[in-house]
Amino acid sequence: MRLFVSSTLCLITAALAAAEPKIQRDVAYAEPKTERRTLDVYAPADGKDHPVVVWIHGGGWRAGDKRGVQQKPQAFVEKGYVFVSINYRFVPQVTVKEMTGDVAKAIRWVHDHAQDFGGKPDSIFVMGHSAGAHLAALVCTDDRYLKAEGLSMSILKGCVPVDTAAYDVPKRFEGVGPPGAAKATDIFTADAATHRDLSPALHLAKGKSIPPFLILHVADRADSKAQSELFAAEKAADIAAEVVPAAGKTHGTINSEIGLPGDKPTESLFAFVARRSK
């Protein structure tokens, strides 16, 4: 009897160990290595050709960290996805254009190394929250960033920006008064041409392999609601863009609760990824 129990426990322990995700932390995606240009990889224990999710944290283009992902890695890995959380540099040390370049470099690393951790190089989803949502949308609409890394946007299967109000930067800061104008200048510079250049909605065009978008926003946040609907209403580029307003959420909880059982935005997100992974 003791031998049977012992053997059973060993089998259970082995099964649990096999199910544990493979984790690699603080991997440099650009040289020279700095903490701000590293990423963490969470991968299923086995299998291959898993779709890959690249997650970009928020923080107002000035702060944040790749470790602030709550239960997201576990939730995605359990669904059969590789989850990669990235860091990037901040203003004022770099411009928003340069930090978007960091995101593109991270995607290049993911593409080149996807098979090392069971991922599929041409099945990448780009997601992010707040400032990270803006960066996700920008790298998925302005193809110059990935082209600079030798990549086509055709490797992207979808983009999921979560609650940003910066799809059209000029419109975002129209009539906001001196405090809002100062913020626009601090982050995006005072140059109107730069504001347009950093606006994902203004890069929508046919023939660029722009992936489908699932846009999540807080239902009663006026600025992100207006900007999300503005982006999705741009039909000239024939881009598929679904907008999902999240009722009862705040700018913080719409992010922190992704991956929790019964979370409505999470259900929409996983349904979108499943459709696009086929």
Task: Outline the secondary-structure elements.
Blueprint: H1 2-19, E1 22-28, E2 38-43, E3 50-56, H2 72-78, E4 82-86, H3 96-113, E5 119-129, H4 131-139, H5 144-148, E6 156-162, H6 169-172, H7 177-188, H8 192-197, E7 213-218, H9 222-232, E8 241-246, H10 253-256, H11 264-277
Parallel strand pairs: 3-4, 3-5, 5-6, 6-7, 7-8
Antiparallel strand pairs: 1-2, 2-4
Helix pairs in contact: 3-4
Structural features:
single chain, 278 residues, alpha/beta, Rossmann fold, 8-stranded mixed β-sheet, 20% strand, globular
Number of extended strands: 8
Count of separate structural domains: 1
Indicate the radius of gyration in whole angstroms.
19 Å
Helix residue percentage: 25-40%
Counting helices, strands and paired strands, the structural category is alpha/beta
Under CATH, the topology can be stated as Rossmann fold
H/E element sequence: HEEEHEHEHHEHHHEHEHH
CATH uppermost class: Alpha Beta
How would you name the CATH homologous superfamily? Answer: Alpha/Beta hydrolase fold, catalytic domain
Q: State the end-to-end distance.
A: 48 Å
Count helical runs: 11
Strand order of the largest sheet: 1-2-4-3-5-6-7-8
Largest sheet composition? 8 strands, mixed
Low-pLDDT segments: 1-18
Give the overall shape: globular
Write the CATH architecture name: 3-Layer(aba) Sandwich
Give a verbal description of the structure:
With 278 residues, this protein is an alpha/beta fold. It has a single domain, classed as Rossmann fold, CATH 3.40.50.1820. 39% of the residues lie in helices and 20% in strands. The protein has eleven helices and eight strands. It has an eight-stranded mixed sheet, with helices on both faces. Helix 2 links the parallel strand 3 and strand 4. The relative contact order is 0.12.
